[in-house]
Amino acid sequence: MPQLTKRVTMIELFYDLVFAYMISQATSLIHHLSHGTVSPISFLIFAVVVIVFINSWMVQSVFTNRFGSSSWTDIAFYFVDMMILLYMTNSFGNTSSENMTTFFMAASLLSLTLLLQYLIVYFKADYQADKDIAKVFSGILLFRTLTLLIGGLSNAGWARLVAFLG
């Protein structure tokens, strides 16, 4: 059976460029040194931000490589996700865990859009293997969306902990 290859579209490349910009902006979280060292809370916030960004990029990449079809729906989701990502980039200027509410809300919205993409695939898929993959990713994204939403809706310490663990 011949192996089919997918061409990389310009929208995918632009999406990757937005992520590269985001990672470069995230480094500003550990740019400010206190007595020559990075504070543990600043490093933890940096780690969470980078993990959320890279995880979101990987989930989108899996979707694009497995199910992406360069349809208008896919393109619309790409643009919505890029707007959310750019908003997220500007939401973590402070290295205090008390000021992560905006970031958690935007990250939960990003997770929700990724969840919607996988749910669309689940209901449209013809093959059981595609349904199974979409179901697993949907479950993971639902959990992540809810935990980040809890952190975004409540400014309590326990809610931020739930968001960090999610």
From TrEMBL:
Pfam families registered for this protein in UniProt: LtrA
Statement: the UniProt record of this protein carries the keyword Transmembrane: yes
InterPro entries in alphabetical order: Low_temperature_requirement_A
Record key words, sorted: Membrane, Transmembrane, Transmembrane helix
Stretches that traverse the bilayer: 12-34, 40-59, 71-88, 100-121, 133-153
PANTHER family (alphabetical): BLL5714 PROTEIN
Designated name of the protein: Bacterial low temperature requirement protein A
Organism of provenance: Lactobacillus amylovorus subsp. animalium DSM 16698
